[in-house]
Amino acid sequence: MAPDLVDSGILDTLFANNAAPILLIDPDRDGAIVDANPKAAAFYGHSRETLRSLHVWDINALGRSILPAMREIASWEGGHYPQRFHHRLADGSVRDVQVYAGPIVLAGRKLLLCIVHDLTAVIEAEQFNRLLLENVQVGVCGIDRAGNFTFVNPVAVRAFGFRHESEMTRGHIGCFLSHTGPAPTDPTSTALPPDSRTAGTEGAAAVLHPIFQVAETGEPARDIDATFLRGDGTAFPVRLTASPIRNHSGIVGVVMSFSDLTVEREREAQASDLANALPGAIFQAELHQGGALRACYFSSAATELLGLAPDSELTAPSILIPLMSLKGWARIRRSLRRAGRDGKVWEGELEIGPAESRRWLLGRAQPRRRADGTMVFNGVLLDITERKILEAELQRAAMHDPLTGAWNRRRFQQALAEAEARAERYGRPYVLALIDIDHFKRFNDTHGHQAGDDALRLVAGTLSARLRRSDALARWGGEEFALLLPETELATARQVLENLRHAVASQQMECGSSITVSIGAGQCLAGEDTYGLLQRVDAALYRAKDAGRNRVEQA
Length: 555
What we know:
The protein folds into 4 domains: 9-122, PAS domain (Beta-Lactamase, 2-Layer Sandwich); 136-180 and 207-277, PAS domain (Beta-Lactamase); 279-388, PAS domain (Beta-Lactamase, 2-Layer Sandwich); 400-554, Reverse transcriptase/Diguanylate cyclase domain (Alpha-Beta Plaits, 2-Layer Sandwich), CATH 3.30.70. 35% of the residues lie in helices and 29% in strands. It contains 19 helices and 22 strands. Helix 16 (440-447) crosses helix 17. 29% of the residues are buried. The model is unreliable at 1-8, 180-195 and 200-205 (pLDDT under 50).
């Protein structure tokens, strides 16, 4: 792509009023990102210049596998069509996006114009709402004003005697209302009985069914005893609640929930089985105005999820309180109170159990305020232990040297900057040491690279085993290590370093040889930055080598 197209800010000119992230991609240059609007830079967390240096496979979780799809989109003639992808942001997080992509011609080149919409929150909300809908213990149905089903949950499907919601969502509620005359058994039939909107008995005046009364008047109906018909025509008594569904144009339908009064126990058992088959547990909790938190209900799957005995009384405080620290419970109460105050879905991570068998749970719950001010939370708990372990492993991999297990240079520089800040603000001393394995190249050439790797691991392990938890050891590069001793004077550090040098020299390797290290060390001076300290310590290390190695020299 010609530079003048990129530098002209054409996206700013053409799409200045578009609040969505926009990318301009060149399919003929391996998916190079030609330009991006400021909204895209803010969304992806890259500067605009950085985005211009990337390719589409740098931000798409499919990697280079996206290129065939990109070329296919580039072949379309006119129009932009939505595609779902996972896009990676600068901080490493991944978002669900819908990309409206299509070809355009600019400056004689055929490019792809991509308008990006972040759907992450929408998808999570849909999944969460669907999970709750599928696990409530009552039947839930939605109908439009004409009486056609718009949605049914699994409990309702079973109550009406069907196997799948698709068997009902094409039908009409009138097929399932008690009325005079035979009931049609085909829910997809459009030939409704004349009284499908009415309820009554022979000889009595027919009245509008409560469900349709709600659609007509807009007034909710609560705890109405009625009779429904299953798909095979058999009747069953229900208690139903119905509320109008409104939009800007008025009432567009009705949502109703009902309980099958004759098979309540069986229905509850089925719902419980369904809940326990899910990869998690359903719970209900109350947060009282005084701050007391009380668990009201857990599905039986929670016993395994929480690591408790099958016969445990899950709602008992004596069982639940030991699962987390007091700080953990306090944090949960605060987040629940905040969610209840804001009327938002609560989400929190729970760290439960002792260190040797620790587990992490993700909790999500919808708040509902009772008349007395108590907040009731209905939600689910999911086991995210494997995800947390993976995140920890990835974090460790990003901060540690894979061969020795010591910190890598990047992590050590962060610790060094923190030590410098403490020294500047509080006057707390620290010592920096550089440690180099003596004659490492000759050792490698003599014993082989495997023995060289063993030597690096031996030095790292020997040093780490003799350091405080507050000390920091990193592989600085090659055969060189860096050591940070915070809150330490040089005089004290000198003896520590001598002990470390002696500990390394006393180790015997499997190849029959031993190794030694040379050490340069220095204490930060008032007003000295880490760069100056590193130079002094590095010079001390070279003096130790020039003086015969296997020794400690002070900067």
